[in-house]
Amino acid sequence: MSRFFSKKYEKLIPYTPGEQPKDQQYIKLNTNESPFPPSPKAQEMAKIEAEKLELYSDPECRDLVAAACAELGVGQDEILFTNGSDEILNFAFMAFCDEEHPAVFPDITYGFYSVFARLNGVPYTEIPLRDDFSVNADDYIGIGKNIFIANPNAPTGIALPLSDIERIVKSNPENVVVVDEAYVDFGGESAIGLIHKYDNLLVTQTFSKSRSMAGARLGFGVGASSIIRDLNTVKYSTNPYNVNRMTMAAGVGALADRDYFEQNCREIKKNRVWLTDELRRLGFSVLDSKTNFVFAAHGKVGGRELYLKLKENGILVRHFETERLKDYNRITIGSMEQMKALIDTVKKITEEKI
Ligand code: PMP
């Protein structure tokens, strides 16, 4: 830390992204990226836009907003695109949370919520998941704080039914409920349909997972126009050109290619079923996932040991060394070829141990 670093950030513990080692070619199953390239239409449109990079991007993202509104059934004033969904989540903390409006989220969830809370000086409470790692919706009924809930949750992969999300939103009319649907396209139920019924709901989604665009950084939030207006105030006070020209064009291309998107989601779900069955056959306990990853623990091989042995064998998974998570690893669903390579290696590792 330099002597110039602001006191307000002294205690900040930044988010640790999944490792991206360059020492060898790994099978990367550690950051929930898609194994498939972005849609050819997205690539084509981004290339054309690359020739116009001397010009600023459209701060209103009009082409992208029009395409997304048609797809999602929301109005143009009910959506805001951002630089990944991380950005809109941060905007939500900035816009709606402060000393008088604290935040609440599960103790095991996306690690960025607590980082954004601390960054913005927002007091927060973490509510423990049940022993089976599920969220107990009753814990959030009438809680009177701004709620951040990933649905499906990460790193567990478990989804709450939409009826539970609605109960939470309805019972906290004086607070904003942010439903982070980064993984919803792999089997969750979206709450987007509820935004016309409740003006305290913000639903966020991303193009990073199901649309294979993690490197482009494109996310969005939908909610009542009053909520979106507040978020725009924050956006225009930080970075009006937050979505670059190539990403915006790629987003339009990706939305136009519905077949490609649906085919990839189907493939991931199929591979998830296969991987879950294989892991269970090898003695793993695997949580029921509605995402593009599974969370799995082996009775005999410790979580960290498995993570290290897989890495030695050229396969990266995500390990969290905290008390409740340390027996587990989060494994991204990849192509069938990657899944087979993973299972072959896991077999070797677990057989050595028995
Ligand atoms: N929410 C959850 C639950 C996530 O796992 C991620 C990805 N790490 C994000 C939001 C943010 O994704 P992005 O910024 O790439 O849209």
Q: What fraction, in percent, of the residue positions are helical?
A: 25-40%
Strand content is: 5-15%
Mean pLDDT rating = 97
Total number of helices: 10
Helix-strand makeup class: alpha/beta
Number of strands: 12
Major β-sheet annotation: 7 strands, mixed
| Global morphology | globular
**Bound ions, cofactors and other small molecules, one mention each:** 4'-deoxy-4'-aminopyridoxal-5'-phosphate
Distance between the termini: 47 Å
Q: Which residues form runs of ≥5 with pLDDT under 50?
A: none
Radius of gyration: 20 Å
Looking across the biggest beta sheet, what order are the strands in?
2-8-7-6-5-3-4
The succession of helices and strands, N to C, reads EHHEHEHEEHEEEHHHEEHEEH
Walk me through the structure.
This protein has helices at residues 40-50, 62-72, 84-96, 112-119, 162-170, 225-235, 245-256, 258-281, 303-312, 336-353; strands at 27-29, 79-82, 103-106, 124-127, 146-150, 177-180, 201-206, 219-223, 284-286, 293-298, 315-317, 328-332. The chain is of the alpha/beta class and 354 residues long. The strands form three sheets. It has a seven-stranded mixed beta sheet, sandwiched between helices. A three-stranded antiparallel beta sheet has the order 9-10-12, with helices on one face. A two-stranded parallel ribbon has the order 1-11. The longest helix has 24 residues, at 258-281. The chain is globular and about 60 Å long. It starts with 26 loop residues before the first strand and ends with a helix. The mean pLDDT is 97. The structure holds 4'-deoxy-4'-aminopyridoxal-5'-phosphate. 4'-deoxy-4'-aminopyridoxal-5'-phosphate binds next to helix 3. Residues 84-86, 110, 150, 154, 180, 182, 206, 208, 214, 219 line the site of 4'-deoxy-4'-aminopyridoxal-5'-phosphate.
